[in-house]
Structures are given as structure tokens and as C-alpha cells.
Amino acid sequence: MTATTADSAPAKEVTRTPKLIGRRRTSLGHGILHVALIVWGITFLVPLLWMLSTSLKTSGQVFILPVQWIPKNPQWSNYQEIFKILPLTSFMRNSLFVTAMGTLGTVFSSLLVGYSLARLRWPGREVVFAMLVATMMLPGIVTLIPTFILYTRLGWVDTFLPLFVPSWFGTPFYIFMMRQFMIGLPYELEEAARIDGASSIRILTTIIVPLCGPAIAAVAIFSALAHYNDFLGPLIYLSTNDRFTIPLGLQWYAGRYGNFWHLVMAASTVALVPVMVLFFVAQRYFVRGIVLSGLGGR
Amino acid sequence: MAVATPPAATVPATVPATVRRRRPSGVQLAEWRDGWLFALPFILGVLIFWVGPMLYSLFLVTQDWDMLGTPKFVGLGNLRLILEDPLVFKSLLNTAYYTFIGVPIQLTLALLLALALNVPLRGRSIYRTIFYLPAITPVVASAVVWNQIFNADFGVFNVVLRSIGLPGVKWLFEPAAAKPAFILMSLWIIGPQMVIFLAGLQNVPVELLEAAQIDGASTWQRFFSITLPILSPVIFFNLIIGIIASLQVFTNAFVMTNGGPQNSTLFMVLYVYLNGFRLFKMGFAATLAWMLFWIIMVFTFLQFKLSGRWVYYETKV
Asked: What homologous superfamily does CATH list for A81-295?
């Protein structure tokens, strides 16, 4: 940007002015960029603001035009009401249970399998790694019907088991992330321990795992989000009302009482609270995790 | 494919020769055993959740079964049903529309955002947070919110349209507008792609850009001849992931329109779901799933084939 301005400046002043003009151009550019990003950012916030503001309206205020973005007399009681109408507490408990069990399983399996693929040498490892990459690419839709039949046979329908047991066997994507991270760790530490006769499991738990903090955080966060937000799984496997997870309960309610906009939005806001908390507590791991997952594979 | 450091290089030179000769076999065997043992959950997982179901699904393709009675062998009957069912073709077209119009727009906007946020602006992380937030919102919650946003009378979209003198659109109630509405909604969830682009932009060497600048290359020239080629592997990654995800769109359509109006948002996975879990036509649903499976595989394969023409790898061996 500076060079182009410098070229257009009169030849005599070249030594003095270009920087100044350049800086002015840059700050102007930054200003324009800020304006664009603020406008774009506000549009991005509209749905969430809508959710929040509608959740605080009376059923009458909802349909008043122009839209009241900050409702007069915010109806905090909407939240009390939605907890009375819907068993939100048990939905939340179910969701948190499935999320916790699924995330634990994902972290456990991705550490174990990731370590094996990254740092242990054994015949067949390349084949298993190829399988990992292949299953990452395979569209899961093809197993939807047969796995449902499998769980029906096992008597697992209307239990939480189908929602978190597979995670204990490992999710290809997270194993891959963990492997990519572990490959980058220095070898010397591990080698010394191995010569001293330490077992693989000991090396994994005492040397490798403590170094994998960021990767574990990233895997845990993404897995937790995926389990909490999952809809198709609960939709297919859960049928009893008090076993619903938050997304399924929300869909169930919105499908029947969609006209109570303010209450539907209050329920949505409640559904959003756990992921927001997770996001703001662990924000820096999000970016790192996406980078790890997005760029590790190429 | 990256492979762990070769074994020979890591054996310390100080180990006595006798130990070196005898020890490896024992240690190596233990390592083999541990390797297999640790990878076992995944190997079992592949067998239980992939290989088994896929084989069983192949069997289902030849069956007519409602999960209650005994399965009936129909040979290629399900395939014929697919060819005869106009809704299959419709759902294919809908999915293609959503994917091949939606994904390019998503990637363009995500790239624009990433380029803007790659500039050392004040408050960059705040912007990044705002653009990322929609991606963590539970899909059902966002579907429920967007349902209201698209409302013909009181939704934000039409309020804005009317305020600038345009007629409102019955977004989710008009076949011609429903798919564009879904694409609009998908443009709200570009945070992950944006962050991946941002990471990719870190790989663009500043020296190269500066050198080009000194040589008199314009901003556009620098973007198209330096930034874009270096970014192409990341664009490729986002494209593959975006298309695979988009071809399997389900939750939005299920929550917001359930396929309507007039089947204009009947996407492939939704149709699989409806056949399998509403009508219990297990054989037909499995066949549909296989069709979608092959479509996705062919597209992914084609993209890898074509990628050689436009994806630039710096460290090509």
C-alpha cells in the first residue's frame, strides 16, 4: 500500500512524505475496514440478539412492529415459565451426562490410539492409519440405518448408550488431531524412559499426556460441542420425553408450541448457555484446535 | 504422509554392542504388542461401527423390510424404486442446489473475512469471536431462531426489506425462496472456515509480498499471484469439508420445514431419515444412503483429481 502512494508522490519529496502518506492511507484503510467489519459483525449478532430480546418479551410484544430490540419491562419470568412448562432441568442433566461420557471417551481413545499411531512402531500401523484417514472421509450416512438396527438388537434404543459408547472406540477425526500433535513432540524424553525400561502405558501417562495439554483441550472442547449439539442421534435413539437431550427437547417444544415465540426463544437461550460458557472459558483452545485439525492433514 | 522418526537414528550410541544386539527384539516385541493393544479400540470401532454396518447395509439393499416382519428378498427392486421415485431425483436436485450454490458463497465470504481480520486491526479478536459465535450455537437453537427471522410478517428479513420499500418474501413458505433462505442461513455459520483461512494466511511469507510490492505489483496482483496460490491447499481443504457437510445437511431442514414447501427443501439425508425412521422402509432407506455415499465419494475423488490443476503445494516432493 505504501509503495503505490510513494510512486504518485512528487519526486522531490519522496524521502520525506511517503511514510506520512502511507500511514494516513493505512489508517484510512483501517477505518473503512472497521466500519465494514462492524456492520458485518452486527448482522452476525442479529439472530442471537433477536433470541435474547424475544425471550424477554410478552406474547403480545413479540408481534409489535417496528421490532423492539430492547423490550419494555423485560419479562424475566419467561424463564421461570419455560422451566415450569418443559422439564428443562432433566433435559440439561441428560445432555450434560451424554456430553461428559462422550467427551471422556473421546479423550481416552484419541490419546491411546493417537499415541500408538504417532510414536509406537508396529507392523500394520500404516494400514491402520490409512483406515483412519479413510473413515474420516467416509460419509456417515451409510451406517445410519444398519447401526440403528444394531442398537435395536442390543436393546439400547431409548438409552443414552448409542450416544456416547462409540466415542470410547475413538472418533477418527480426533485421533488424527491427537496423532498430528504427538508426532511433533521431541523424542529424547521418551527414548530415555524406554531405555530405563518404562512401559508404554507409563510413558504415555507420565511423559506424553502432560505435554499434550493443548491438544487434549482442543479434542475435549470439540467433542463436547459435538455431543451437546448433536441432534440426529438423540432424535433417532431417544423416545421417552424425560430422556430427551436439550436439542431434542427444544425441537420437540418448538414443533408443538412454535407460536409462543417468547418461550421458544427463552428455551433456546437456556440451550445456548453451556456452550457460551465453554466458549468463553476455553476460547484460545478453539482457535488452536481448528488450526490443528484444519492444517495438520495436508 | 508423515511417519515417525526411524528407529535406528534414536538408539543412543552409548548403548553397549551386546545390549544393542539382544535388547531390540524384546523391546521391539513389547512395542509391537503395545502398538496393537493401544490401537485396538479404533480397530474394533472400525469393525463394529463401519465395516459391519456397511456389510449389513449391503444386505439391506436387497431386502424389503419394515423392522417388524421377516425381511423379503427383492433383488435390485430397491434400486428400481429409486429410479421410479420422482422424490429421489427432487431431493438430489435440492441437495445439489444447496451445496453448489451455497458452498462457493460460504468460502468466498469466509476468505473475505479472513483477509480483513489478517490486517493488524485493533480489536481483531473481538471480531473473530463475533464471527465464530454462530458456529457453536446448537443447530436446533439456530434453526428455531431463523424460523422466526424468516417469518413473513414479523421476521427481521422482511422488516428490513419492507423498510427499504421492497415487498417481503414468504421465505419458508414459497418453494422458490426456501432453498435460498437455507443458503442465507448457512452464510451465518462460516466461522470455522474463516479461522482455517486465517491460519493459512500465516503461511504467506511477508518477504515475498514485500518483494513483489517493491517490484511494483499492485494489491490485486499480489493477492492473485502470491496469496491465493499459497492459500490454495487451505481452500481445497475447506472446499472438501464444506461439500461433504453440505451434501449431508439435515437438522435445519428437519426443524424448519420438514422438507416443505412442496418438497423444495427435501434434502437427501432428510429423505433417508423419513424413509427409514418414519415409514420404516429399511431396505429402501439403506439403498438411498448408499446412493448418497457414492455421490459423495465420487465428488471427493473428482476434487482430488482436479486439485492437481489448481492447488499449489510448496513442498512438493
From this structure: MetI-like (1.10.3720.10)
Three-state SS at B137? coil
Distance of alpha carbon A220 from the chain centroid: 9
- Separation of first and last alpha carbons in chain A: 32
Nearest in space to A294 (alpha carbons), one of B205, B3, B110, B42: B110
Average pLDDT across chain B, whole number: 88
Nearest CA in chain A to B238: A294
Q: Closest by alpha carbon to B45, among A200, A106, A125, A141?
A: A106
Q: How confident is the model at residue A25 (pLDDT cuts 50, 70, 90)?
A: low
In A98-127, the residues whose Cβ lies within 8 Å of chain B are 109, 112-113, 115-126
Amino acid at A195: I
Q: Which domains does chain B have, with CATH numbers?
A: 86-310 (1.10.3720.10)
The ranges assigned to domains in chain A are 2-55, 81-295
Mutation pick from A44, A52, A117 vs chain B, by most beta carbons of B within 10 Å, is A44
Q: CB–CB of A169 and B250 under 8 A?
A: no
- The secondary element (H helix, E strand) that includes residue B159 is helix B156-163
Kind and range of the H or E run holding B64: strand B63-64
Contacts 24+ apart (CB under 8 A), B50-54: B50/A135, B50/A138, B50/A143, B52/A146, B52/A150, B53/A142, B53/A143, B53/A146, B53/A147, B53/A150, B54/A142, B54/A143, B54/A146
Residue A252, H or E segment: helix A246-257
In tens, the pLDDT along A188-211 reads 878 888 888 888 999 999 999 999
Q: How far apart are CA A141 and CA B274, in angstroms?
A: 13
Nearest CA to CA, how far is A169 from chain B (Å)? 5
- What are B73's strand-pairing partners? B63
pTM tops 0.80, yes or no: yes
Which site among A108, A141, A231, A252 would you substitute to test the B interface, given the most B Cβ atoms closer than 10 Å to its Cβ? A141
Per-residue pLDDT tens over the stretch A151-201: 999 999 999 999 999 999 999 989 998 998 898 888 887 888 888 888 899
